[in-house]
Amino acid sequence: MTKLPILPTMQCDKGCGDCCGPAPATEHEYKKAIHVAKAKKLVLKHQGLTCPFYQEGTCAIYDARPLACRLYGHLKDMQCSRGYNTNISDDAGRKAVLKNGFPTRILHEVLVEFGIVATLDDALTPSAEDMEPRG
To answer: Percent of the chain beyond pLDDT 90?
Structure first.
């Protein structure tokens, strides 16, 4: 896998999770997330549209999160809801995606794979908590 450019540091408030929705991932990123989840013995649960890896106010697989999550707050079309953006150029974002590969999965699929829900539609069913702001 090609090494990706280093993104500028961005402030992120513990417990926010506003950007932790359905996360697109490449096959490699998806398998890496599952590997980390198993190694950490994470207990995943259905959280509606919230990513199953968003736990206790933070990302449980932060170091293994997909590029889409890493780019959040760095691209003009993926702005931080709290205004903590440290934007990079769209061209740099496109180059990062081209180096990484295009997403073909979403992390919610892990809920089906781990037998927590029956279908991806079930995994993406919004919960009451999805309708309430976090943080």
So the answer is: 50
- Residue 10 burial by Cβ neighbours in a 10 Å radius (0-12, 13-18, 19+): middle
Backbone angles phi, psi at 129, to 5 degrees: -65, -30
> Where does the pLDDT of residue 119 fall: very low under 50, low under 70, confident under 90, or very high at 90 and above?
very high
Checking if the pLDDT of 28 tops 80, the result is: yes
Q: Is 45 helix (H, G, I), strand (E, B) or coil?
A: coil
25 half-sphere exposure, CB direction, 13 A CA radius: 22
Gap between the Cα atoms of 24 and 121, Å rounded: 15
Output the pTM of the full model: 0.83
Q: Is 123 exposed, middle or buried (0-12, 13-18, 19+ CB in 10 A)?
A: buried
